[in-house]
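Quarterly update from the structural biology core.
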Amino acid sequence: MSEPKIVSMAQPEGAGVIDYPREDRREIGCPTRETWTLYESADGLMTAGIWACEVGRWRIAFPPGKEEYFFVLEGHVRLHAPDGCWTDVFAGQGAIIPAGFQGAFEVLVPVRKHFVVVDRA
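Predicted structure, tokenized:
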């Protein structure tokens, strides 16, 4: 068994994995999203890395047991709750999307963020 090693959250060389919001969840645009997964725990319960996205908005639904902490490095995102309230997160700020959250994720200014997802499901 190898020794555990510290994982750097620096921007890696090369392209990340490209994807787009599912068509049935899109509300504004079809933004390109790029993900660099830098860490996956041995038990598969946690992933961490860097995520970048263009301007757009789509619905999200976190299942029970799945939550995300993120820290915005550049850009501006807005999380919309079902009750009509929203939370803005700007560069230099972080937020947590709690397990069971349903709403919308909006990128108002192209964003780059660190993320940590815990999935106990």
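The mean pLDDT is 96.
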